[in-house]
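## Example record

The block below lists the input lines for one assembly entry, exactly as stored, with component labels intact.
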Amino acid sequence: MNLEKSLQAIIAKAIETLYGQAVSTDLIQISKTKKEFEGHLTLVVFPLLKISRQSPEQTAQSIGEYLQTHTSEVARFNVIKGFLNLVIAPSVWLTEFNSIHANENFGFTTATEQSPLVMIEYSSPNTNKPLHLGHIRNNLLGFSLSRILQANGNKIVKTNIVNDRGIHICKSMLAWQKWGEGITPQSSGKKGDHLVGDFYVLFDKHYKAEIAELIAKGETEDSAKKNAPLILEAQEMLRKWEAGDAETVSLWQTMNGWVYDGFDATYKAMGVDFDKIYYESDTYLLGKEVVLDGLQKGIVYQREDGSVWADLTANGLDEKLLLRGDGTSVYMTQDIGTAKLRFDHYPIDKMVYVVGNEQNYHFQVLSILLDRFGFEFGKGLVHFSYGMVELPEGKMKSREGTVVDADDLMAEMINTARETSNELGKLDNLSADEIASISRIVGLGALKYFILKVDPRKNMTFNPKESIDFNGNTGPFIQYTYARICSVLRKANESGIAIGSQASVALGISGKEEALIQLLAEFEAVVKQAGNEYSPSVIANYVYDLVKEYNQFYHDFSILKEEDSEMRAFRLMLSQNVARTVKKGMWLLGIDVPERM
RNA sequence: GGUCCGGUAGCUCAGCUGGAUAGAGCAACAGCCUUCUAAGCUGUGGGUCCCAGGUUCGAAUCCUGGUCGGAUCACCA
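Predicted structure tokens for the full assembly:
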């Protein structure tokens, strides 16, 4: 906040005058005054005692008196222990407010030609299963992060790397050939990704049965897993795919097509999108070239069996396999290839990977390897690492059928939103289209906010019951406040009541209004902080604070019935700016706000 | 075992570049709808900030050690 900075300079000057000694600004600690005390900003004087050579109270008193008499910004002050609470003059708040009001874009920085280009990778699904709750956290974080970085003046490319090849895809394909030939999404009425996921599960079921059979015949578990006929067939299918066998490739294309249609529907429902999608089938061979090149240059080494390794012991890590004995790629190799391809396509200044914290080690290694292979961006890559989503009963386990499906969950949230709205009579007199739109906005808002308000680094518990609660610190509470402001502004408009365009300094405003302006002014700093820390939760918690403060204000005053027309215009103007900031904050989270609900 | 991350109210979470009496929401209880949307507002109760040391005028916050929980250390992705 600008006010804090200028106050810092003013105080520095005051101290120099009072004690004849210059101070560095980091000794001048200014924070927001706690609610139970009078004042807006508080100076902590303890660090200044060495200079003042007085008691904390005396020091605070002297500085306070100086500020009150020599500056126009400070109207009053009070001293409690070593804390100097400053009451900022109303005129300062009104000036601040007018400048925020005049700048529609307040808090956001628009990218220019020279702005850094940030590529952000998120989602990154496998094409053998539908998206689940874990993907939801990933997608929401990635999308919100892209908007936060955009608002901080970066050029953004959102990207997705689809893991469309490998043994897991072959399992689904094989199961379909064996037990589902002829079944399509159209014929079964199932979403493509769910249909393919079902065949993956079916494969697993039969595979497990074969293993059990082999163990019963006396084989060890390890050998049974390796020698079950189904897994051998799947491996054979992978070999055929890699060899370019026409029939296999064709089936692969068909089934992946089904899955992409399904994913597209899910992404669209979730409200996320991508600028560029990469497929591992296009990049997995590229990494091999980079690694072989590195082998010639002596960056990596080859073992007797032909496998290629990187020695990372100098970095305090282990040795890492990059190419198998048969020359094929592993996960790490693919990521190297994908990185190369991306940097060939775009002049990327910074690469951000939104990937779960179970892959912290992988990205630590990737950063070192990219750097060694001569890619400048390697050192600076950001692994945006987030925690797992757990259920109240514990982790999601596909074996136990506790995986929460993304499509189901979103549908359920929207349904509950509709039912709850209906019970409250919110949907009376609305068209079917409006009902559908509001239910969708509120249901998804609840889900998104519930997930985004939590610090990304932490594991979180997803309680379906609580997420559907629309009271308290929730998305719908914020949306509700927004809708109510819209309603007030609508009514003002209908009855020809003027909304202010410039707050007059002659107004006698109260602490409630000052508190709101102070919060509005913080938005700029909050957006910056969210960008620095890569954290949507900073935005979420800020918007909640703002809305909570506004609700108290809303209940204290009957805005439309205010008789003083100037005050009424000012309060409407303030409401308008709160709505604008809420909307911007929610936009950064990727959450829509309804104009009525 | 090595490395990384976490432990704050009954529950879900803020606060963590050191600052005042540690905050919200949920749940419980008590009030507020002839007044702009009660999905709201007001109040009450609820704490060994995992433990122990250290640094400091001052520690939930920083450091060290311990403890509990999670992740990871694959010729899986």
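The first helix of chain A runs from residue 2 to 19. The longest strand of chain A covers residues 155-162.
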